[in-house]
Q: What sequence folds into this?
DNA sequence: CAGCACCAGTTGTGATGTCAACTCATTTCT
DNA sequence: AGAAATGAGTTGACATCACAACTGGTGCTG
């Protein structure tokens, strides 16, 4: 049993789930076994820590670069803005990743016809080669992550994740 | 409709869910509307971005400090190690957070009886005051996050999150 | 009891993610 | 057309997060 689930049972022996719970003196405290932001932090940090180490070591690129590559494989010939939009990557990070990937010889670009500020980017053959190698590793890592999860539960999980993403997108940075 | 769900429908018009999908030429690519690590990154980054800004501005402490405070409210009189264990905070971050919170006058500590390397920490009255103020904001933020999610779906979601956390803990940094 | 492995916590360094200020191009308004 | 507002992308600065080397204390073992 993990530390967090053990703690959750100590604090919520009746099995009731709610992230605010009570300590032994009746003060409201968070329950780390149910408080959603802590779960996100724990899982996401573990995922990106492992991915970062692996991709840097094996392919000499970081996570942001991988995400840009994966996006350019999905939609070739797009401007930086489109990348930011879809994979929630900051435009500063996108800009630096594109520069670095171009230096490393994985990308081609041309200036947009209609707008000289824009560039249109795509993967060259080397870029697709790298994409395919990393994709195999990334999918294996995803399979490890969902190991032991029922397919039906995973569907529900994804539905909730989509709703949460809508919520954070909607609320923007202001209030969430 | 969000960008990601729109894209997911473009790529998976039959509604089938799987994070590897195919582009128009048959190449395997990730589906950003189903690829779980991207969801984690998008949601977690939005959450911690907002929390960081809010807590720094309103209370002059960072996210790590808040997590340490919340843990000390759950279990008073614990050493740093216990904090790391439960809330998945690096021991370096824990050390710095404890120092900072002590400087700001929210904590008390004493050396452990049995082991001079350890200190035992707890919140003083000021610390509990801060805890209660932040907790109210944090729970409100969590309510915003889960807005629109069915309670049953949320149970399933948490079950899957616990399983995923076990998976990343089990696989450690090596392979995940 | 001396040496050695181990452990708790501290500090330095680098990767990631974000914001804000800036440049330069485009569009809008009058 | 000229001025102002908007937009795309670049760059610098800072907060966060993690690893690893290090310090100093503990405890095991010969």
A:
């Amino acid at each position: 049993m993990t530390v967090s689930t053990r703690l959750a049972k100590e604090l919520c022996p009746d099995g009731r789930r709610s992230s605010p719970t009570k300590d032994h003196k009746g003060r409201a405290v968070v329950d780390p076994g149910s408080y959603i932001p802590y779960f996100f932090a724990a899982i996401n940090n573990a995922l990106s820590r492992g991915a970062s180490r692996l991709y840097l070591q094996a392919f000499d690129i970081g996570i942001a670069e991988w995400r840009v590559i994966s996006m350019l494989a999905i939609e070739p010939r797009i401007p930086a803005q489109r990348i930011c939009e879809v994979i929630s990557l900051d435009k500063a990070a996108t800009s630096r990743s594109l520069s670095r990937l171009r230096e490393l010889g994985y990308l081609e670009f041309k200036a947009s016809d209609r707008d000289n500020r824009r560039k249109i980017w795509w993967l060259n053959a080397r870029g697709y080669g790298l994409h395919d190698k990393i994709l195999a590793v990334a999918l294996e890592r995803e399979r490890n992550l969902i190991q032991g999860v029922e397919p039906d539960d995973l569907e529900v999980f994804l539905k909730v994740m989509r709703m949460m993403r809508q919520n954070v997108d909607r609320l923007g940075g202001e209030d969430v």
Observations:
- Residues 1-16 of chain B have pLDDT under 50 and may be disordered.
- The helical segments of chain B are 3-11, 36-59, 63-74, 80-87, 91-103, 125-145, 151-175.
- Chain B touches chain A through 81 residues (CB under 8 Å).
